[in-house]
Design brief:
The complex is a heterodimer. The model of chain A has no long low-confidence stretch (mean pLDDT 89). In chain A, helix 3 (73-104) packs parallel to helix 6 (154-178), helix 5 (125-143) packs across helix 6 and helix 6 (154-178) packs antiparallel against helix 9. Chain A has helices at residues 12-48, 54-59, 73-104, 107-122, 125-143, 154-178, 182-190, 195-206, 208-224, 227-232, 250-259, 267-301, and strands at residues 63-64, 69-70. Chain A has a domain at 63-271: MetI-like fold. By secondary structure, chain A is mostly helical. Helices cover 74% and strands 1% of the residues of chain A. The longest helix of chain A has 37 residues, at 12-48. Chain A has a two-stranded antiparallel ribbon with strand order 1-2. Chain B is mainly α. Chain B has two domains: 55-157, no CATH class; 179-411, MetI-like fold. Chain B has a three-stranded antiparallel beta sheet with strand order 2-1-3, sandwiched between helices. In chain B, helix 3 packs parallel to helix 5 and helix 9 packs antiparallel against helix 15 (307-336). The radius of gyration of chain B is 30 Å and the shape is flat. Classes of the chains: A mainly alpha, B mainly alpha. The interface between A and B is large, with 87 and 84 residues.
Chain lengths: 302, 412
Amino acid sequence: MNQLDLRKKPRPGEALVQALLFLAGILSIFVTIAIVYELGKEAMLFFNDPDVTFAKFFSMTRWQPGIGQYGIIALVSATLVTSAIAILIALPLGLFSAIFLSEYASLRARSVLKPILEILAGIPTVVYGYFALLFVTPILKLFFSGDQLQSYNMLSAGLVMGIMILPLIASMSEDALSAVPRSLREGAYAMGATKLETSVQIVLPAALSGIGAAVIVGISRAVGETMIVAVAAGAGPNFSFNPLDAAETMTGHIARISGGDLSYNTIDYTSLFAIALMLFLVTLVLNLISQRVVNRFRERYE
Amino acid sequence: MKRQNDHFPTGDAFYSSLRKRYLTASIWQTAFFSALLIAIIGLTALLYNVADGAFGYVAYEYKKDPATFTSIPVNELTRDDLQAILKENLSSGAYKKLDNEQPMAERSQSDLYTLFLERLVQIDTQATWSMTDSIFHGGEIRAEVAKKYPNATLEFRSWLTPQFLTTPMSSKAEFAGVRTAVLGSLWLVGIAIMFALPVGVGAAVYLQEYAPKNWLTSIIQTNINNLAGVPSIVYGMLGLAVFVRTLEALTSGAAFGVTDSNGRTVLSAGLTMGILVLPLMIINAQEAIKAVPDSLRQAAYGVGATRLQTVWYHVLPNALPGILTGSILAISRTLGETAPLIVVGASTFITVDPESPFSKFTALPIQIYNWTTRPQPEFHSIAAGAIIVLLAMLLTLNATAILLRNRFQRRL
């Protein structure tokens, strides 16, 4: 008569916890929705202003919403210049460091060298800003005579941003290189290839997609970086592709304007959201592409 | 046959091509190593630059001669002397205000001496020199000061002093400190972690232990990875729109009877930071949970534990070191992040400690930014001092994280 009841019991406590955990999990989706909604809402207010047109937004070369100048290019140009300099520095240095760490360095050398990259990656960007303004710019002044180099300039901001992104590109590339199966390397050695030939002609092409992803994430980081450019690149929109000039990036502009006394429902306020929305979309696309690339690459080797 | 000979040279041709290949190989190996060397040089230059700014010669003048206040030599003044001098020479309103901040009778000798210099004698910095200049060109500096500022005193000064940590902000660099900024940063960390830790771990547990393999789960996962790559300033804009503006009644404390503030409070900023570090927190917690061996779960299920019991008693305790490491990384990020704080409206000049979530606030990186962008060189020196404080805090945190990680790796 003492039969065991094996039917599934209702457990309200467990169900409640599971529901809470589900809420925590889905919260991140709400964060994304909130970002898109809030940025979109204010950006719409900006574009609904009768004076603002897409034509002006994309074709004017000055940005000063207060007096009817809406040329986003004046900010985009500075973002492009600083990011390009940063990638030109970080890509070769990061990739070379990754090749050295993954293909050449002994275990002991790695255990010393990798933490150095990790320290570089952990330094707050405002500290890099200090470094750019008070160390790199004075040094650059030694190389450029007189007024050529302004005391705020995109060159020093870009160079320092390159150093900041270097560890990111190095560690992602190193992961990609180490994921290449040993057998590929051994095959190359068996054919009499030198270590360099193996690394550059066999391992590097096999890891190319991972390295591509690293570069894209690096670009996205450079585009979104704020403090270095806010401190060292200049405080005023300037449509210029000359790295020796002072100019303000999209992020730097948001930081400077929102740092002041900003009242809601003004064109200055809504215009910042239009810039931020653009920034969000650009970095989102870059991140999505890089994830695609990484996933495809994983499928091939695991 | 001839074609093959091009690819596989023999005899002397073979050795000369081999030499060439080895030469190229060693040149490139040097290049690869140089890249790392440049990174190391960059790091060294950065740290040197900070130290260089934080110590060095200062030439300063007294606006008023200390002898006009007292006949006792300055370095022999006792605590009571100083209090008497302050009481005598400060306007009664100013004295009362200081007394209200912290009763005069409770202040130490060095505190009072600082007040004496700040309020009465009024130090005026004429010039500062970097550490390197001070060490290698000391003679020239002394000669220059004697010529240009005949009344000035030259002193080798460390801008980073115990007082620098305990005094609040001041409009004079010589007397400014990071007390309010450090406290503001700690408030931010506290609020951010109180939000991000439970939510982050909850999300990670859901995704690793509960979530079915369907489209929703994969969207959540992709979304978290994307959120981790959103620029921090965009989070700042989100915080401005949601916490500062829309939820102003809650974040300013108006709903709880606080009257004298707007939405730009430490609570708004802390929640913004919490959302900012959430993806980082989730990803790290997921890695930690993933690393818990499946055998543990199966053993728990085998003895009849429910899913919640399995997670609570077996998975989470084993994932704890990893989760803690993730939290420490999130805290480091909160400490160093600047851009979102500017956007949600950190105050740059504030001398009162933050006392509740509804206080105005400043934070260490905000002070560093503010001081770095001022034109006066003495503010650059205190910015360097503040950077050292910030880096020291981060270093301590990361050392803890590494210790935890090593222990964790040994156990599993």
